[in-house]
């Protein structure tokens, strides 16, 4: 079966193709759950196989994405322990984003989106769940972004030049510029923030994440990742901030920068050019 066969199949049966993509996404989400659970602890994501917190191995039919959790109604079969709603949630979000990429994007950008979004979900999940972001997938975001830019120059709209090598080189520069801007921007904010607030405003993980978004989306994407992400972060932290003010307590929570920046990065990947256009039109009128 070739890629052309797959494409004609998708054209003939759009509903079935979308469903297949959704199932694929939920399976990837299931694997991301394992990564989110194990990577921050430095454990292998391959061995041992899935097992319950009580030590019992989980048979594969109870491990099916979404269906497994629903059929168990959120309780482990072996010991009755509660299974976090995080597991089906990550599977559902991954499935929906895979389908969104499939329906909204075209060509190789769909597959690139799947890699990009999976890594973003992984990083955001680790930050939310364990409050630490492992370096390996974060650097993988930067690395894959640069490599994919060279492989698929059209990711950066670089396809105009008749010589393919020139397009690839230009896309590489676009991607590296995104990495540079992302790194410099967060590093600068971090330095200024540390001086003003007297405590570390943003961590190294934020720097690498913003660089990674830059690698996939270019320097405008890195810019949006930081500032759009900050706005999303403040909005999500606002309710608990207001609540602690009303109660007269000191605010103890942290602004969830990594998930917010990941959301901003994903938004830019899907709708970056449109956002840029809207911004320009807004400036003119
Ligand atoms: Zn158990």
If you had to describe this structure to a student in words, what would you say it looks like?
The protein folds into two domains: 1-104, no CATH class; 108-285, no CATH class. Helix 6 (135-151) packs across helix 8 (204-247) and helix 8 (204-247) packs across helix 9 (257-284). 72% of the residues lie in helices and 0% in strands. It is an all-alpha fold and 285 residues long. The protein has nine helices and no strands. The relative contact order is 0.09. The structure holds zinc ion. Zinc ion (ZN) is lined by residues 52, 54, 56, 76, 78-79, 81.
Number of strands: 0
| Whole-number mean pLDDT | 89
| Radius of gyration, whole Å | 21 Å
Helical proportion? Answer: over 70%
Shape annotation: globular
Strand content: under 5%
Give a list of the ligands.
zinc ion
Structural class: mainly alpha
Number of domains: 2
How would you sum up the major sheet? Answer: none
Distance between the termini: 52 Å
The low-pLDDT segments are none
Which H/E pattern describes the elements? HHHHHHHHH
Compute the number of helices: 9
Itemize the secondary structure elements and their pairings.
Layout (H helix, E strand, L loop, with lengths): L2 H10 L1 H25 L28 H6 L13 H19 L4 H22 L4 H17 L12 H34 L6 H44 L9 H28 L1
Helix pairs in contact: 1-2, 2-4, 2-5, 4-5, 5-6, 5-9, 6-7, 6-8, 7-8, 8-9
The structure holds zinc ion.
């Amino acid at each position: 079966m070739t890629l052309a066969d797959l494409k004609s199949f998708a054209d003939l049966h759009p509903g079935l193709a979308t469903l297949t993509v959704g199932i694929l996404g939920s399976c990837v989400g299931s694997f991301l759950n394992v990564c989110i659970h194990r990577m921050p602890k430095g454990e292998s994501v391959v061995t041992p196989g899935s097992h319950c917190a009580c030590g019992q191995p989980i048979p594969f039919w109870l491990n099916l994405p979404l269906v497994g959790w629903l059929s168990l109604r959120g309780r482990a079969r072996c010991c009755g322990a509660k299974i976090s709603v995080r597991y089906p949630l990550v599977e559902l979000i991954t499935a929906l984003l895979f389908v969104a990429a499939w329906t909204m994007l075209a060509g190789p950008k769909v597959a690139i989106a799947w890699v990009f979004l999976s890594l973003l979900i992984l990083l955001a999940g680790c930050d939310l769940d364990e409050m630490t972001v492992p370096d390996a997938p974060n650097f993988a975001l930067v690395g894959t972004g640069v490599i994919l830019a060279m492989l698929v120059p059209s990711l950066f709209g670089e396809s105009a030049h008749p010589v393919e090598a020139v397009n690839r080189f230009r896309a590489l520069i676009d991607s590296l510029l995104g990495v540079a801007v992302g790194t410099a921007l967060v590093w600068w904010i971090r330095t200024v923030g540390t001086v003003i607030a007297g405590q570390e405003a943003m961590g190294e993980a934020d720097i690498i994440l913003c660089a990674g978004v830059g690698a996939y989306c270019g320097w405008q994407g890195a810019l949006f990742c930081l500032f759009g992400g900050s706005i999303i972060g403040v909005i999500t932290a606002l309710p608990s901030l207001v609540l602690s003010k009303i109660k007269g307590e000191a605010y103890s929570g942290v602004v969830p920068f990594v998930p917010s920046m990941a959301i901003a990065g994903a938004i830019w990947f899907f709708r970056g050019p449109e956002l840029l256009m809207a911004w320009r039109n807004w400036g003119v009128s």
